[in-house]
Amino acid sequence: MDTSSQPHDSKASVSLAAAGLRLYDTADHQVTPFRPIEPGKVGIYVCGATVQSSPHIGHIRTTLAFDIIRRWLLKLGYQVTLIRNVTDIDDKILTKAAANGQRWWERAYIYEREFTHAYETMGVLPPTYEPRATGHIPQMIDLIQRIIDRGHAYVVPDEHGRPSGNVYFDVASWPEYGALTHQQTGTQPADEQAAANDRLGPSIDIDGQNADTDEEPGKRDPRDFALWKAPKPTDPPTARWQTPFGTGRPGWHLECSAMSHRYLGADFDIHGGGLDLRFPHHENEMAQSHAAGWGFAHRWMHTAWVTQKGEKMSKSLGNGLSVDQVLSQHPAWVVRYALVSVQYRSMLEWSDQSLQEAEGAYERIRNFVDRAGRILGAQPERARVAGLSADDLPEDFVQAMNDDINVSGGLAALYALIRQANAAMDANSETLGRKWLANALLQVRAMLDVFGLDPLDPHWAKAAADRDNRAMNTLDALVGQQLQEREQARKDHDFARADAIRSQLTAAGVAVADTPAGSTWDLSR
After folding, report:
1. pLDDT score at 458
2. Are 193 and 303 in contact (CB under 8 A)?
């Protein structure tokens, strides 16, 4: 995506509107005022993809949700550091690579690139940094040793009394375990939306079973979870690292604690991910980081799932629509709109109707932007659109977005201004207040930019041009075939057939011209 006209974090200055931002915290089950750890700066860690197979719409929903959150923070004037990791080694990757005759790191990289392509196609701003798990083994080893030294983890010995490679977090040694989900303490009421999501079943990244069962022998307590895992006999030599705890590879939960600390420090503002990651993944992350003597995320934000006909999109149900499949049938702008038009904590029902509504939204928005631009004789520059402060946006839009990123309310404010501007243009375009209209157009495009949907963003303009080129190439091939048939009919003196072909093309809006060099065509005006 062309980010040259996006807000630059280093030049940010916090707006007055930022004081009104309130966000939900999964741990507290309530919406509270947001105050960053360091004034003017926000650090976000989002759990990224486990690159085992192709991305589907359920994966992309979470990425887009945090893209909107980040864009709004930028519009409020914050400097935002967003870290989104890549899990490039785990049981699923190793198993699927072996089953398909691939090297595990080869498979991981193939699907990492697919995810990256999907993010870019959907207009997601690139993260500040995107670390891979395998690039941070030393930090993980140091973290494990720190937890062991503080008495909250243990190494399982092998039959000879040597370190086996299995290291587990000792849940019983950490009384605060369960602070995120309250599954053990029962001190907080269950969040209704979270409970509704839980009833839908397992994670979109889980093939019908727990993603990290940690059922290896030697655990003192069934609740204990792996920090480091001894290799299975089937694991290739390249998937093993030598450590003081024995040969092995990292546990799933450990990587995020190590990487968030590496890039955001001991304390950071927001930890995000899909709602299915709350337990055990995020609960375990919190426990191991705090047990190491570090701080951790000050606020937890989780996105709800995408559903189809009331069922959660998942591989085990066979209803995980691949991103490529959806994008082959719909423009990326339309797919993005369908995925971001529902508030991040609400379940999103994926259907043909939601895509049709998104297509209608594109026509409505594009028609207004084009019409206002024609009347004014120009569009506001892209840099001005991207750089407009939240303080310069309509108050009802700001209030909605500050209310835990209420995109439904934000879109309502956007359409209210479009209706008002359309009515003004309908009334009398000659005497219309051009200054007011110019500001309305600027505000509409800036609000759309918060959603990553400004139709004149170079990213979408290029995508539209690419679609037009593909459509024209297809049309050229089809019309060319018709013209060849017409030429053959003329050679055969079947002039009735030749005239019929020309009439069919004319009726379809194709103008045919016969020249000494042959027949040519163009779209009729």
Report:
1. 93
2. no
Specify whether the CB–CB gap between 226 and 185 falls below 8 A.
no
CA dihedral 307, 447, 115, 58 (to 10 degrees): -10
Burial 244-279 (b: 16+ CB within 10 A, else e): ebbbbbbbbbbbbbbbbbbbbeeebbbbbbbbbbbe
The dihedral through the CA atoms of 416, 422, 425, 427 has a sign that is: negative
The backbone torsions φ and ψ at residue 511, rounded to the nearest 5 degrees and listed phi first, read -95, 125
Q: What is the pLDDT of residue 487?
A: 84
Quick one: tokens of 246? 């024995």
Element (H, E) at 147: helix 137-149
Cα(179)–Cα(162) distance, integer angstroms: 34
What's the average model confidence in pLDDT over 55-68? 94
Residue 188 has pLDDT above 60, yes or no: no
> 332, 305 in Cβ contact below 8 A?
no
Q: What's the CA gap between 460 and 451, in Å, rounded?
A: 13
Is residue 427 predicted with pLDDT exceeding 60? Answer: yes
- Would residue 316 be called left, alpha or beta, if left means φ above 0 and alpha means ψ between -120 and 50 degrees? alpha
Lowest mean pLDDT among 102-111, 238-247, 408-417, 488-497: 488-497
Whether the CB-CB separation of 202 and 208 falls below 8 Å is answered with: yes
Q: pLDDT by residue (tens digit) across 348-391?
A: 999 999 999 999 999 999 999 999 999 999 999 999 999 999 99
Cα-only R_g, the chain: 28
Q: Is 489 helix (H, G, I), strand (E, B) or coil?
A: helix
Q: Do 307 and 275 meet the contact criterion of CB atoms below 8 Å apart? A: no
Q: How far is CA 324 from the centre of its chain?
A: 15
* Other CB atoms within 10 Å distance of the CB of residue 191: 21
Reported as a single tens digit per residue, the pLDDT across 196-237 is 444 443 333 333 333 444 456 689 999 999 999 999 999 999
Q: Which two tokens stand for residue 195?
A: 């409970």
Q: Is 232 helix (H, G, I), strand (E, B) or coil?
A: coil
Backbone conformation region of residue 264, classed left if phi is above 0, alpha if psi is from -120 to 50, else beta? alpha
Closest CA to 369 of 426, 458, 443: 443
- pTM attached to this predicted model: 0.84
| Interacting residues of 12 by C-beta distance below 8 A, sequence separation 6+ | 40, 74, 77, 78, 79, 80
Question: So what's the pLDDT on residue 465?
Answer: 55
Return d(Cα 79, Cα 76) in angstroms, integer: 9
- Mean pLDDT calculated for residue range 48-64: 94
Measured in degrees and rounded to the nearest 5, phi and psi for residue 154 equal -140, 150
The lowest-confidence range among 133-147, 401-415, 421-435, 443-457 is 421-435
- The 8 Å CB, 24+ separation contacts for 514-519 are 518/487, 519/483, 519/486, 519/487
